[in-house]
Amino acid sequence: MTKFEHTFTLDKAHFVECFEQSASLRQQGWKRYSKALILFALGFFISAANIEKLSGHLGYFFYVLGLVEVLSVRFARGWWVTRQMFSKAAGNEVTLTIDQQGVHSKSDFVDRQCLWSDVERLIKTAKGLILIEKNGAQHYLSKAVLSEQSYAYICQQLQPSSSVD
């Protein structure tokens, strides 16, 4: 029976690595700003429609929402990492168990099992692996946390469908 156990801490360096290594899975280019453009357009149309009592305030509300969306896209890394650092899981130790069933991560606040049969894709990155489940959930595993044997075992269980460098 093959079983690997690793422990690591959810710190800022880990969150930054998770964000950077999974960046290829997010929308690229101007598509990232589509929601902001829709909010700005909605604000413009409400203001231009000249609806009494609503046009001024409601139009400005959508402009501000559009601006917040632009900032969240522009500063996505800092925004995401900061949110993770404020979460109750930040700073806690995680025990990662890899066995014949799949990958199990357990901490004081999270107890998650990712079964091999639920994984649709495995993506190799420069610093780790991304497991994508059939339901769309994504799990990042850092090479810094894994031993060479556990890394090879995961790759053996799931043939990589792509590689991102």
Describe the protein in words.
By secondary structure, the chain is an alpha+beta fold. The protein folds into 2 domains: 90 residues, Roll (PH-domain like), CATH 2.30.29; 57 residues. Helix content is 41%, strand content 26%. It is built from 5 helices and 8 strands, in the order βααααββββββαβ. A 4-stranded antiparallel beta sheet has the order 1-2-3-4, with helices on one face. The chain has a 4-stranded mixed beta sheet with strand order 7-6-5-8, with helices on one face. A hairpin with a 3-residue loop joins β5 and β6. α1 crosses α4. The model has no long low-confidence stretch (mean pLDDT 87).
Which labels suit this protein?
single chain; PH-domain like; 4-stranded mixed beta sheet; 2 domains; alpha+beta; 165 residues; 4-stranded antiparallel beta sheet; elongated
Give the N-terminus to C-terminus distance in angstroms.
33 Å
Q: What's the pLDDT, averaged over the residues? A: 87
Count of runs of 4 or more consecutive helical residues: 5
Calculate Rg over CA atoms. Answer: 21 Å
CATH homologous superfamily (4th level) name of the largest domain: Pleckstrin-homology domain (PH domain)/Phosphotyrosine-binding domain (PTB)
Strand content: 25-35%
Query: Pairing-aware structural class of the strands and helices?
Result: alpha+beta
How do the strands line up in the largest sheet? 1-2-3-4
Helix content range:
40-55%
Number of domains: 2
User: Shape, please?
Assistant: elongated
Known CATH architecture of the largest domain? Roll
Spans of 5+ residues with little confidence (pLDDT < 50)? none
The CATH topology of the largest domain is: PH-domain like
CATH class of the largest domain: Mainly Beta
Largest sheet data: 4 strands, antiparallel
